[in-house]
Design brief:
This protein is an alpha/beta fold. About 45% of the residues lie in helices and about 15% in strands. Helix 3 (about 70-80) packs parallel to helix 4. GO terms for molecular function: oxidoreductase activity.
Length: about 250
């Protein structure tokens, strides 16, 4: 590791598993003090423990990103523990089982949009004052190829991820001159416990399209963490409002 985030204070949501955990571990290995946020307190603590065992600095914080009061308390706790925020990674997200609109209940719609889009809004709004007070920073939002194309999820997930990309661009325009860079990551299929469950239950056509990507495989969470690290550190200093596709070639075929 090269210390690309040495001395930075990073808040990562969804840090208890999958891509969020991989990003938290990688950021800590690159020198960041990490606040690992997750709905599952035990999972957040497990991530923090993994980081500590490797010699890094981490604090576990429980949060429901879809709830404003919970987010406010979690960000306040993170700022207190870290002494500020330089990097925010909005990684928390849930899937909708590729449900089309006629199979999408109002409850499912609200749940997906609440976590995947409203969660990014709430966490960023809560964290941004601390970032601005510290002179700026970087925000990395987890979008998806479903933010560009159909069949990367169901109607709720696809709508949410389109929204995340729009939110990313607007925030980049609003706060770039104040020292805050905002960008998004748009993965294809990533091998996590959550996506494995969806693939096991998904339509054959969807599964076949995922397996037919030019890369010939799914991404590993650590590969997504590599891109998150680039967007979080100064190597990407001229990157503002971008939505980076990392999909093994899914969207080119």
């Amino acid at each position: 590791m090269t210390g690309k985030l040495e001395g930075r204070k990073a808040v990562i949501t969804g840090a208890g598993s999958g891509m969020g955990r991989a990003i938290a571990v990688r950021f800590a290995a690159e020198g960041a003090a990490v606040a690992a946020l997750d709905l599952d307190r035990a999972a957040a603590e497990a991530t923090a423990s993994t980081i500590a065992q490797a010699g890094g600095s981490a604090h576990a914080v429980q949060v429901d990103v879809s709830n404003g009061a919970s987010v406010g308390a979690a960000i306040a706790q993170s700022v207190s523990a870290l002494g500020g925020i330089d990097v925010l990674a909005n990684i928390a997200g849930i899937l909708d089982g590729y449900a089309p609109i006629l199979d999408t209940s109002e409850e499912l719609w609200d749940r997906i949009l609440g976590v995947d889009l409203k969660g990014v809004f709430l966490v960023t709004k809560a964290a941004l004052p601390a970032m601005l007070e510290g002179g700026g920073g970087t925000i990395v939002n987890m979008a998806s190829i479903a933010g560009f194309v159909a069949r990367g999820g169901g109607v709720a997930y696809t709508s949410a991820k389109h929204g995340v990309i729009g939110l990313t661009k607007q925030m980049a325009a609003d706060y770039g001159l104040q020292g805050v860079r905002v960008n998004a990551i748009c993965p294809g299929a990533v091998e996590t416990a959550m996506t494995k469950r969806i693939l096991e239950e998904g339509e054959l056509a969807v599964i076949e399209s995922i397996n037919a990507v030019p890369a010939g495989r799914h991404a590993q969470p650590e590969e997504i963490a590599n891109l998150a690290l680039f967007l979080a550190n100064d190597e990407s200093s001229f990157v503002h409002g971008a939505a980076y596709v990392i999909d093994g070639g899914w969207t080119v075929v």
